[in-house]
Every structure is written in C-alpha cells, then in structure tokens.
Write a structure and sequence with these properties.
The chain is of the alpha+beta class. It has a 5-stranded antiparallel sheet, with helices on one face.
C-alpha cells in the first residue's frame, strides 16, 4: 500500500473518561507507524496525554484529531470549556499544574482557538 493510501487524519469523539487517554495513545501509535513517524511517539503521546487530561476535566464530550502533512504531526483536542490553558506554578509536592509546561517543552509549537461550543487546543510536532 502506498503512503498516499494511508489515512492522513484520524478524528474521533469520546465521552470524557480517564480511559480515553489510553485509547487515544493507541490511535496515535498506529497513525505514526502508518505515516513513517514512529520516532515521534514518546513526545507526541506525552503531549496528547496532557492535552487530554485537561479536556477530560472540562466536560462531557471531547474530540481528538491527529493528522499529518508530511513530517509534521498535529494533535488537536476539543472540549466544551472556554477556559484557556495557562501555565501553572506548582510546588514540588503538588500533583498537578505542570501540563502546559510539559506541552510547551515537548511540542514544536502549540496553542488554542475558541470555537463554537468550546475550544481546541493544538500541538505540532515535527519529525526530522
């Protein structure tokens, strides 16, 4: 099968539940293997997990999209909250508050956009 025959976008809606993260990581792994970018998995799965952790807390329905346009992989997570991502300032013993810092450290770029019914947080990782 030629690379053009592979799907270049995976999109799926989920009801918010902690088990969503594992399912999304499996989808991500399969997509990256199909696209010839498996070396991005560790960083991409960490970024996606942090994005999902925040989205799962935000509401009932979330949507995850993973797509590529060559050597770039884009991760997008929709949630129904309009609360914008912000960097936390956790103490060493705090269990949370590091998500944005982790996304910032591992993604080549990231951001968000407000959309009808909530927001989309996105991250881009570039394979080399």
């Amino acid at each position: 099968m030629t690379p053009e025959a592979h799907p270049r976008r995976y999109s799926r809606a989920f009801h918010s539940h902690p088990s969503v993260a594992g399912e999304c990581r499996r989808i991500l792994r399969g997509a990256l293997i199909e696209w010839g970018l498996p070396h991005l998995y560790d960083d991409a799965s960490l970024v996606l997990t942090e994005m999902l952790t925040n989205a799962i807390r935000s509401g009932d329905l979330i949507r995850v999209e993973v797509f590529t346009d060559g050597d770039r992989v884009v991760l997008e997570v929709f949630d129904p909250s309009t609360e914008l991502p912000k960097r936390g300032d956790p103490e060493p013993e705090d269990e949370g508050g590091r998500g944005v810092s982790i996304i910032d450290a591992y993604a080549d770029t990231w951001g968000y956009r407000l959309v009808k019914g909530g927001k989309v947080v996105f991250a881009v990782l570039i394979g080399e």
